[in-house]
Amino acid sequence: MTHRYRSHTCGDLREADAGAEVRLSGWCHRIRDHGGVLFVDLRDHYGITQCVVDPDSPAFAAAEKLRSEWVVKFDGTVRQRPAGTENPEMPTGFIEVYVRAIEVLGPAAELPLPVFGEHQYPEDMRLKYRFLDLRREKLHRNIMLRGQVIDSLRARMKAQGFFEFQTPILTASSPEGARDFLVPSRLHPGEFYALPQAPQQFKQLIMAAGFDRYFQIAPCFRDEDARADRSPGEFYQLDLEMSFVTQEDVFAAIEPVLRGVFEEFGGGKPVTQKFPLIPYAEAQLKYGSDKPDLRNPLVIADVTADFARDDVSFNAFKNVIKVGGVVRAIPAPGAASQPRSFFDKLNDWARGEGAPGLGYIVFEEGGGKGPIAKFLPADVQQAIAAKAGVGPGDAVFFTCDQEAKAAKLAGLARLKIGAELGLTRQDVFEFCWIVDFPMYEWNEEEGRIDFSHNPFSMPNYDHDAFMALDPADREKILAIKAFQYDVVCNGVELSSGAIRNHRPDVMKKAFAIAGYGEETLEERFGGLYRAFQYGAPPHGGIAPGVDRIVMLLAGEENLREVVLFPMNQKAQDLLMGAPSPVSAKQLRELHIRLNLPEPKA
HEC profile for 318-360? Predict the structure, then answer.
């Protein structure tokens, strides 16, 4: 054994190595005393090896001093475990190392949280001691999965003819989207760089520069509040852009990449082979969301016309319909056999969401029952049952409000009912595309037309007809769809994308409709707008989130479980102590004077 620290890793040894003299180094994962014989599970990045020290060993006195997470070097002999003590669940579970010499390489203080086991600990403690948290098996495995997924994404992109580029980290502040992280310039007093929210403008400029297929695993920075599916501060995405493509070309390029990665790392779960295209309006109606979870088979129906009939006397809904409201029906297959508490619990849940409750009808052989049924003639009940796709033994729940609110509550109720009735499959990855997003929306507060999503998307509208549009023709303008699309998996939005508006005349008109003059384009997006004056190809792209992909593959519900060093909910790095004050000298160099808010009483 010539190497200073190890002849093998803690994941290497097998029965064929019995009798070999070996040297292992790692962490004391678990120490057990069995009648005076010490068993040490030694752990490194590669695995765990059981090591044994008995009183006859010259290392026994040193072994008695070992504690959890001490870093040690063991010299010893490999031997087969005694019959009946094997552990077939471990690759090294048929051997052990009889230890003759121990060297302590790094003693550990008392642990603030144990590494052995997967016990739940407060998030702030886990983040402050992230280096310990990362030693735990599950989290360590998640981070390794992340690296493997990124390697696979890169290989698949390159196999499709994409080339990896790096775009700037210090750039100009963006007036659109989330808040920027700003970086003061020492050389240009009073001026600031921004960390990129995404490489959006740069990747479009790469296309304008004549490159054809770009991608990168891109870091993005947004000063946003944390959510389970959104990290505060920074995140990574598979950013890509293509020239001379239609929307369908983008789909054809990215679908095999996503499908392949989920098949490779999804543990054998079925993956959608051809992602269905669902128009935005249809998604809002059928699923109450533009990120539908298709593992849930329930489909929402519009039953506004049925409740609006003259022979229906349910005024609680009719009065809402008269002022522009809608009624949505959510089927609940088999719910007729559920106890009354099932319906009461759903009503309480709806009230917790800010709604008056969930009306419902329970369908039996003789007709409908429930608090709403008596207000509905038999033929109306039958029409509702047909639209909702239910029959005897089933139930239907209702939401009634203005369209956006009714759709949102119906969408949440669909997920809740699907989960409560055990209808939502857990063993698949269900993908879809959401397409035909509206280009514009009506801003009620400001009484004007505004962009609904991405101002740089190409409108799905005849060029000449678009250029001739009257900005005052609200009905026509709000009907315009854009070449925008989202890719969704299991109810998680992985990315938005678009075919870009590469025509300066169309871009100028699109902004004019939303009330912005050409000076706005020049001032806020000058680099991109100028580039398009000199011949830009049709181009489009998308940017699936790497963190969300890994989160789905790892079966986690929070992004912090798949990120090495995440921030907490308040966008603080508890491990490194960021953000933190800086010295007066640093502030002077940057020509910055602090104007802090008064401390709260």
Answer: HHHHHCCCEEEEEEECCHHHCCHHHHHHHHHHHHHCCCCCCEE
The pLDDT of 473-494, averaged and rounded, is: 95
Short-list 127, 126, 196, CA closest to 572: 127
Report the C-alpha gap between 462 and 580 in whole angstroms: 53
The b/e string for 436-471 (b: 16+ C-beta within 10 A; e otherwise) is: bbbbbeeeeeeeebebbbbbbbbbbbeeeebeebee
Residue carrying structure tokens 């969408």: 411
Backbone angles phi, psi at 477, to 5 degrees: -65, -40
pTM above 0.90, yes or no: yes
Distance CA 411, CA 353 (A): 12
pLDDT at 519 over 90: no
Q: How far apart are CA 13 and CA 4, in angstroms?
A: 18
Pairing of strands 95-106, 47-53: parallel
**42, 73 contact by CB (below 8 A):** no
Find the mean pLDDT for residues 137-143: 96
Of 132, 246, 194, the residue nearest 499 (C-alpha): 246
Q: Which helix (H) or strand (E) holds 27?
A: strand 21-34
Identify whether the C-beta of residue 335 lies closer than 8 Å to the C-beta of residue 362: yes
**Statement: residue 258 has pLDDT above 80:** yes
Long-range contacts of 185-188 (CB under 8 A, 24+ apart): 185/590, 186/589, 186/590, 186/591
Between CA 384 and CA 306 the distance in angstroms is: 7
Write the pLDDT tens digit of every residue in 25-79. 999 999 999 988 999 999 999 999 999 999 999 999 999 999 999 999 999 999 9
The H or E element containing residue 258 is helix 247-265
CA distance 436 to 280: 6
Question: How do residues 543-599 score in pLDDT, each as one tens digit?
Answer: 999 999 999 999 999 999 999 999 998 899 999 999 999 999 999 999 999 999 888
Q: Is 84 in contact with 41 (CB distance < 8 Å)?
A: no
In this structure, what are the phi and psi dihedrals at residue 489, rounded to the nearest 5 degrees? -135, 120
Handedness of CA 279, 284, 288, 289 (dihedral sign): positive
**Is the pLDDT assigned to residue 177 strictly greater than 70?**
no
pLDDT band at 501 (very low <50, low <70, confident <90, very high): very high
Tokens 């089927």 -> residue: 331
Contact assessment for residue 393 and residue 364, using Cβ atoms and an 8 Å cutoff: yes
Rg (CA), the chain: 30
